[in-house]
Design brief:
With 132 residues, the protein is mainly α. The protein is 58% helix and 0% strand. It is built from six helices and no strands.
Amino acid sequence: MSCHPVAAPRSGEKPPVVRAEVVRCRPQVGGLPQVDAVRRLPGLAILAHRAGDKRAADAALAELVAEYGDKSHYQYSQVHAQWGDVDKALASLQAAWDLRDGGIMLMYADPLLAPLHRTDRYLALAKAVGFI
């Protein structure tokens, strides 16, 4: 069984295949032993949210937080940015910088953080990190 990425729906749209794709892909993504939770769970949280499955999205994020605590603020910022929660995403990104999370070095080129790119807080943080 192949699993193809699902494009983000446009504002207000929900393609009818998204939920089926997430449900079909979840076992395949979750069953890969070489994919550790810090990479797998943010993806599941984002896909479930896009599919409208808030309970699964929240559960994936909660599992990530429970397992990694203060070690994964960068991933939390990715999830919140993709969920459209800019304030939480920026707070998590700031925490990642404050804690010197290694993921912060990806922030300027990370497409998952695109919803933040034009905010003053993101630009100030990018400057503090040394990207601009």
